[in-house]
Amino acid sequence: MIPITNFIRSDFKAIHPYTGIQLIKGELADKGAMVVLEEDTQAFIGLLTPLDLVRKPHLLVVDCLSSKPLLKPDSRLGEALGLMQETRQEVLAVVNNEEMKGLVFKNDLVQYLSTQKAWLERKRLEELNIIAHQQVEIEKALKIEKALYHSTKSARILLSTDGTILFLNKIAFESCTDAHRKLLAPGANLRDVAREIPHLVGNDFEGDFNRALQGKHMRMEHEAAAGDTKRWFKIEYNPVTVEQGLLGVSIVATDIHERKQNELLLDRHSQLLQELIYTQSHVLRRPVANILGLVNLISRKALLLEENKVFLDLLEASTRELDEIIKDIVNKASQLE
User: Three-state DSSP class for 245?
Assistant: First the structure.
């Protein structure tokens, strides 16, 4: 509610009650109203307007006065206009404890309201233009997003902040239909679908979706059903923002089954290589070490013919050569790992 304080005119013309009408008639028409005050005490008596002269055409001011409602300094704009409309007055006096404060003219109030109305209308048009521009930008962003979505081999779904599907590309539609016999379409809520198919887009859709809404970028690898088989997918949750703020969350599912199979195969090869290294470094070297120990024991304890010593030296040399070959194989296998 707007107070009338800013609309009170304090530069009013004051006259005495026994002033002749002819003396002030022209000035009254020019000013629109005159305040009638007691000559001695300057107490407020009434308000004289041109309409009073029409209704009560007398010679003295006091005889032309008519009763009018009074406003207070804390009166509101709507209240003042209501009184003016009800009493058909163009101006009212503002009095506080019998002290004259000023005049409020209907034209001032109407002009202010007209200005405010025009300002509000301009503001409304500006806001409508902003909304229209935002809508165009959002539609443009969605078109770009759709073009990008359709141009990739990954399944892509764009969700609003409440989980409603805004868009999904052909790959996402066909993948869900083929694997789960479930139709996905814009307008459906993926939260409801995820409750029916728990591992549709990762192991924790609700948690990953909420974390993406908080601005986090989520990435994970997930093995999911694809028809009658299972395939590996890389799942990405990313927040999507536009000029006006957060639009929603983008989910991208990329088939990485071949890469994952290769990684698993490499892991298996690495495991086999580890086993081979262990066999070479421990199992094969153990009998070699035993042979070297026996050769050393025989050479120190037994009385051998010179010819047998030669054979024993050859046996030791061959065994040590075999030991070096095993060490070399182990080193090269370790480098391959």
Answer: strand
Question: How many angstroms separate the CA atoms of 254 and 232, rounded?
Answer: 9
Q: What is the pLDDT along the chain (337 residues), one digit of tens a residue?
A: 788 888 899 888 889 999 998 998 888 889 899 999 988 888 888 899 998 888 888 899 889 998 889 999 889 988 889 998 988 889 999 998 878 889 999 998 888 888 888 888 888 888 888 888 888 888 887 777 667 656 677 888 899 999 999 888 887 777 776 656 667 788 888 888 887 776 667 778 888 889 999 999 988 888 876 666 788 888 899 999 888 888 999 988 888 888 888 888 888 877 877 777 777 666 677 787 778 787 777 776 665 666 677 777 788 788 888 878 877 777 776 665 5
How far is Cα 130 from Cα 5, in angstroms, rounded to an integer? 35
E strand map for the chain: 14-15, 34-37, 44-48, 91-96, 99-105, 155-160, 165-168, 218-226, 229-242, 245-255
3-class secondary structure per residue, 12-79: CCEECCCCEHHHHHHHHHHHCCEEEECCCCCCEEEEECHHHHHHCCCCEHHHHCCCCCCECCCCEHHH
Residue 68: CB atoms within 10 Å: 20
Alpha-carbon distance 253 to 251, whole Å? 7
**Can you state the percent helix, strand and coil of the chain, rounding each to 5?**
55, 25, 25
248 DSSP β-pair partners: 160, 240
User: For the chain, how many residues are written?
Assistant: 337
By DSSP bridging, strand 34-37 and strand 14-15 are parallel
- CB-based contacts of 258-265 (< 8 A; 24+ apart in sequence): 259/232, 260/221, 260/232, 261/232
Residue whose entry in the numeric block shows the structure tokens 């088939």? 255
Supply 49's token pair. 């307007």
Distance CA 205, CA 189 (A): 12
Record the tokens describing residue 142, joined without a space. 């969605």
Q: What is the pTM of this model?
A: 0.42
